């Protein structure tokens, strides 16, 4: 569990509120990836139960010279991102790393990842994490909360093109946190 002054009750409340807001967005917002004809039946996403063990302190290492890379997408041409950092962390008693990307002008770092749950329990092409860039740049340690892992919009509609996790971001440990696959 991450952080000495971690307030689990407040964290659970924030996580519940975040999930409720996301479900409301997907059910009602005009930009929802849920097809309009399916929104009346939409009763929320499937999630793993909140688990503080998937809220980990990571070591933030900024890239000395960020490089532009092309990430494959689910459809269409590759998407261009700047590789800006690496997060190193412990999960399931082993050390792991995930590369972080940024689109110019964005305030968040984009962390696409894949893990052994893909296909059976979670979206088959991977999930995403977003990390506030200010949190990352304010120090060496950054909390990665996999309970906030989410499916890309292309998990809900073929009309979206979504970046795929690069090989460097394929974890060998199951991450049973965040959004699950819809049934």
TrEMBL record:
Disordered, as annotated region: 1-46
Residue spans of biased composition, Basic and acidic residues class: 8-27
InterPro entries from the UniProt entry: DUF1684
Entries under Pfam families matching the protein: DUF1684 (PF07920)
Protein name as annotated: DUF1684 domain-containing protein
Origin species: Halobacterium bonnevillei
């Amino acid at each position: 569990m991450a952080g000495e002054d971690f307030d689990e009750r407040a964290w659970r409340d924030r996580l519940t509120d975040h999930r409720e807001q996301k479900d409301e967005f997907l059910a009602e917002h005009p930009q929802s990836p849920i097809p309009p004809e399916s929104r009346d039946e939409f009763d929320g996403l499937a999630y793993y139960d909140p688990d503080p063990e998937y809220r980990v302190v990571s070591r933030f290492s900024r890239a000395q010279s960020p490089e532009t890379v092309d990430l494959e997408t689910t459809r269409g041409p590759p998407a261009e991102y700047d590789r800006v950092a690496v997060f190193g962390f412990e999960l399931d008693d082993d050390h792991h790393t995930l590369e972080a990307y940024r689109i110019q002008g964005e305030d968040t770092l984009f962390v696409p990842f894949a893990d052994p749950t893909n296909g059976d329990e979670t979206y088959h092409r991977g999930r995403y994490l977003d990390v506030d860039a200010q949190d990352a740049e304010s120090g060496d340690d950054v909390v990665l909360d996999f309970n906030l892992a989410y499916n890309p919009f292309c998990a809900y509609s073929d009309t979206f093109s979504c970046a795929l996790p690069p090989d460097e971001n394929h974890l060998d440990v199951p991450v049973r946190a965040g959004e699950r696959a819809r049934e």
